[in-house]
């Protein structure tokens, strides 16, 4: 029996794959436990500079496993399951490690919450994304009510949560829910292209100013919970710490040399 979540780390990239393809990666107790284990490891390790979340099979995540709920619909069990998943969500969102999601096919219900864990989402041109909680009489969980309105605005969040609407990939891009839409010839080719593009995004973080990207993500994610003064104080501390790192010193020196060669211009036109 294969693991419900595949997890590996290579050259600073943590790769987390939802792996219940026959159930459209619907979340059951085993997947929740494996998700929690993987995200705890990401949080405790200092050799991880980026995280990639993707999924096996034809969909990213169809939400909670309704068949499992139907056989044992006890409040305490469902609440405990959500709390286990929430630990991983909090760990990823509050970390100083940027997260990219490769979300091909369908993303619905709790899958939307897992998608919102990412800081940068890539989807396929054939993808659809929605809430669908009310379709089975349930309320949103896994951070959806906390994060969806931050991503798309309160009115649009309510439009999605108070209907059975599924956004197309182009609509999700227009709403700001995802960062990129990737096309291809057929569903499998699109899924492969989505994974490849998400991996390229992750490697761009690892090949660049990895720590700076991570702390920029952390600062933005923390901002809604703080006063302006608290946020600015953290910004000041963070840039003060960053300027003394070997990476920043090397990049600043390189930038200064280029600026001097260009007649003292501050702007680096090459990016």
From TrEMBL:
Database matches in InterPro entries: ClpP/crotonase-like_dom_sf (IPR029045), Enoyl-CoA_hydra/iso (IPR001753), Enoyl-CoA_hydra_C (IPR014748)
Entry-linked CDD domains: crotonase-like
Lyase is among the record's keywords: yes
Family label: Belongs to the enoyl-CoA hydratase/isomerase family.
Lineage of the species this protein comes from: Bacteria, Bacillati, Actinomycetota, Actinomycetes, Micrococcales
Superkingdom to which the source organism belongs: Bacteria
Source organism of this protein record: Demequina activiva
One of the Pfam families matching this protein, by short name: ECH_1
Protein name: Enoyl-CoA hydratase
GO-annotated biological processes: fatty acid beta-oxidation
Keywords: Lyase
Keyword Iron: no
Gene3D superfamilies: 2-enoyl-CoA Hydratase, Chain A, domain 1, Lyase 2-enoyl-coa Hydratase, Chain A, domain 2
SUPFAM superfamilies: ClpP/crotonase (SSF52096)
UniProt catalytic activity: a 4-saturated-(3S)-3-hydroxyacyl-CoA = a (3E)-enoyl-CoA + H2O; a (3S)-3-hydroxyacyl-CoA = a (2E)-enoyl-CoA + H2O
MF (Gene Ontology): enoyl-CoA hydratase activity
């Amino acid at each position: 029996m294969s693991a419900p979540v595949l997890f590996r780390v290579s050259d600073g990239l943590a790769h987390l794959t939802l792996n219940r393809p026959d159930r459209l990666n619907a979340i059951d107790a085993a997947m929740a436990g494996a998700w929690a284990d993987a995200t705890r490891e990401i949080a405790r390790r200092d050799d991880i500079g980026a995280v990639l979340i993707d999924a096996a099979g034809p969909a990213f995540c169809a939400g909670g496993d309704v068949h499992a709920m139907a056989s044992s619909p006890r409040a305490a069990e469902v609440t405990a399951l959500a709390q286990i998943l929430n630990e991983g969500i909090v760990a990823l969102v509050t970390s100083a490690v940027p997260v990219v999601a490769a979300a091909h096919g369908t993303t619905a219900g709790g899958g939307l919450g897992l998608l919102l864990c990412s800081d940068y989402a890539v989807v396929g041109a054939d993808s659809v994304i929605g809430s669908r909680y009310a379709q089975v009489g349930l309320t949103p969980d896994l951070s959806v009510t906390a994060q969806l309105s931050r991503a798309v605005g309160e009115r649009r969040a309510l439009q999605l949560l108070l209907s059975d609407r599924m956004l197309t990939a182009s609509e999700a891009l227009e709403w700001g829910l995802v960062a990129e839409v990737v096309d291809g010839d057929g569903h499998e080719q699109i899924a492969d292209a989505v994974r490849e593009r998400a991996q390229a995004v992750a490697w761009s973080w690892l090949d660049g100013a990895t720590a700076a990207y991570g702390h920029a993500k952390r600062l933005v994610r923390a901002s809604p919970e703080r006063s302006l003064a608290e946020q600015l104080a953290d910004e000041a501390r963070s840039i003060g710490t960053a300027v003394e790192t070997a990476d920043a010193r090397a990049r600043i020196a390189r930038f200064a040399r280029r600026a001097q060669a260009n007649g003292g211009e501050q702007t680096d036109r090459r990016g």
